[in-house]
Amino acid sequence: MKIPNRIWVLSALLCCSLLAMTCIAQNTDQNDGMKPRGEPFKPQADTTPTPPEPSGDATRTIPGFPREAEVCVECHGLQGEGQPGLAPRIAGLPVEYFRQQVHGFQVGKRNNNTMHVLAEEVTDPVLDKIASYFSSRPLPKTTPILRGSQAVFQDPAARLAYQGDWSREIPACVTCHGASGIGSGNIPPLAGQHAGYIKTQLQDWKKGERTTDQDKVMTKIASQLSNSEIEGLAEYFANIGSAEAD
């Protein structure tokens, strides 16, 4: 049976239409998100996630912290609180006293191999910044015991702290170091300092291994103290904030 030409033509047109629609659908899937042809090209926004900013070390969050002091915080702490058995508390030290002690390490008036090496690298302008920062750090709160408020002390350490022993020409510690050892002027605080550090320094004064004292005052005092008295004074001032005088 012969198919009329008209039917062949209609069949061909129908096939072409179906093929065109299939191609359009495929192009639409492949070009999803793109502008139709004929419109100006506009690049899409970059969706690559931005990596987080590095948080940095904790010292950057402390107001006034000088980056030059980072070498100090490993042993002495961010707030100068120190570490018992390793490094003393340096928070609240008078600026000039701080400077004098670093210079003492530089010239051998104080003996500590680590501090000697580190101190040699510190110039005076840098030292001023470091000293000012740690001087501004808070000290443990101590309620001072005023001289004269108590006449008799059963604790030998407390008696030396507040009355001294004039038979051996030992003045009271608080005469120079302030009420309850909270410091006075350019004299450093003793209250709240680590006991081990106070003990070591008194022994160094006694042996003549520390010579940063003016007029040999501490050398003369420490030379008169027994080892048990040194230990008692170290414990007393380290815990004076919570200790009650007898």
Structure description:
The chain is mainly alpha-helical and 246 residues long. The protein is 45% helix and 0% strand. The protein is globular and about 50 Å long. The chain starts with a helix and ends in an 8-residue tail after the last helix.
Structural class: mainly alpha
Radius of gyration using CA atoms only: 39 Å
Give the number of DSSP strands. Answer: 0
General shape: globular
Mean pLDDT: 82
Straight-line distance between termini: 131 Å
User: Which stretches are low in confidence, meaning pLDDT under 50 for 5 or more residues running?
Assistant: 28-37, 43-49, 51-56
Strand content: under 5%
The helix-strand sequence is HHHHHHHHHH
Q: Mind summarizing the main beta sheet?
A: none
Q: How many H/I helical runs?
A: 10
Determine the fraction of residues in helical runs and give it as a percent range. Answer: 40-55%
Top keywords for this entry?
0% strand; Cytochrome_c_Oxidase_Subunit; 246 residues; Cyt_c-like_dom; globular; mainly alpha; C-type cytochrome; single chain; Cyt_c-like_dom_sf
List the helices and strands and how they pair.
Elements (H helix, E strand, L loop, with lengths): L4 H26 L39 H7 L18 H13 L5 H8 L3 H12 L20 H7 L10 H5 L17 H13 L9 H7 L3 H12 L8
